[in-house]
Specification:
Blueprint lengths: L5 E6 L4 H10 L5 E8 L2 H11 L3 E4 L2 H4 L6 E4 L6 H10 L3 E5 L6 H15 L5 E4 L6 H11 L5 E9 L19 H17 L2 E8 L11 E8 L4 E7 L7 E8 L3 E5 L2 E4 L4 E2 L10 H15 L7 H18 L1
Parallel strand pairs: 1-2, 1-4, 2-3, 4-5, 5-6, 7-10
Antiparallel strand pairs: 7-11, 8-9, 9-10, 11-12, 12-13, 13-14
Length: 321
């Protein structure tokens, strides 16, 4: 790097998660956002003005040709993730791609192969599996690694009310979200991270939406090599609080995680303010990306570490087909 800070470009900066990354990055002293990219110049200019970024461009190619970018964060449509990850690495830049890495196991393997090749030149390739970084899940992880807690069962609900193509900001979306390849990916990876490699997986789904062409309801069962089990319910049809809610049932305690907050089995809140330097999972994820680049090491949630998640998702897709 030619500067004392990691120079970041955020692609898909005008979307809901692009802005979440920009909000987190402004708190990281070792990073500077030099470029934002969006699907139109108007959108890119608006985000650049809002966040004080010097350069606004359209598309990924305009980012990759620049010499003031060390690393790229991809907050783009799911179907582009694998190919864009490969393009960023081929351009000699570090990459963090939003979850999911791909919407097929074959594409995930191709991205992994590109990351393996780029690793020889010291390039970092990371996927935004945010649940690994939420302070709530970090505290549970810390107690697992300390030998104080073992997962026996995880009960997870991922619920939205989304019967049209809209994003997290309620704006129209040009692509279709997916319960399996996007939302289930969070839980499949987290369960393996907390309970061990997944050795058994089953899935069923409800009716296919006539316009969106996807299942609006899905149920997934998982079993890990330790014998722990996970039951995951997903729906785009739920009217009520949206998001993902995790119940860890273990040998010494029960925990309920709601994003960055954690409760015990009796709904008493557990203080997680000292678990990490921030209470924002996206910011912590970005901090890990920047630290791995500066320290020349593999990040938590590298493509290598999360690849098995996509093997399981591919297996579940075959069952559903």
């Amino acid at each position: 790097m030619s500067s004392d800070k990691v120079r970041i470009a955020v692609v898909g900066a005008a979307g809901a998660f692009g802005m979440k990354h920009l909000d987190g990055l402004k708190n990281i002293k070792d990073a500077v956002v030099t470029v934002v990219s969006a699907t139109s110049q108007e959108k890119a200019d608006a985000v650049a003005a809002q966040y004080g970024v010097a350069t606004a461009v359209v598309g990924l190619d305009a980012v990759l040709e620049r010499d003031d970018v060390d690393a790229v964060i991809l907050a783009t449509p799911t179907g582009l993730h694998a190919s864009q990850t490969q393009a960023v690495l081929a351009a000699g830049k570090h990459v963090q791609v939003e979850i999911p890495l791909a919407d097929s196991f074959a594409d995930a393997e191709a991205a992994f192969a590109a990351a393996e090749a780029a690793e020889a030149s010291g390039k970092i390739a990371m996927v935004g599996h945010t649940r690994r970084f939420n302070p709530s899940h970090q505290l549970v992880r810390n107690r697992i690694t300390a030998g104080e807690f073992n997962v026996q069962q995880m009960d997870v609900q991922t619920y939205f009310f989304r019967r049209s193509n809209t994003n997290a900001k309620g704006e129209p979306r040009s692509w279709t979200d997916h319960l399996l390849w996007h939302h289930a990916a969070h839980t499949v990876d987290l369960f393996a991270y907390q309970a061990g490699k997944i050795v058994q997986a089953n899935a069923i789904q409800g009716p296919i939406h006539p316009e969106l062409g996807i299942a609006m309801d899905m149920s997934i069962q998982l079993k890990s090599e330790t014998g722990a089990i996970c039951t995951l319910s997903l729906s785009f049809n739920n009217e009520g609080p949206f998001g993902t809610f995790f119940r860890y049932i273990g040998d010494t305690a029960t925990y309920v995680a709601r994003y960055d907050d954690l409760y015990d089995g009796n709904e008493q809140q557990i203080d997680v303010t000292n678990v990490a330097v921030s209470m924002n999972g996206i910011e912590l994820q970005d901090r890990e990306f920047i630290a791995a680049i500066r320290e020349g090491r593999e990040p938590n949630s590298s493509i290598r570490q999360v690849l098995d998640c996509y093997r399981v998702l591919g297996m579940l897709e075959e069952q559903l087909a």
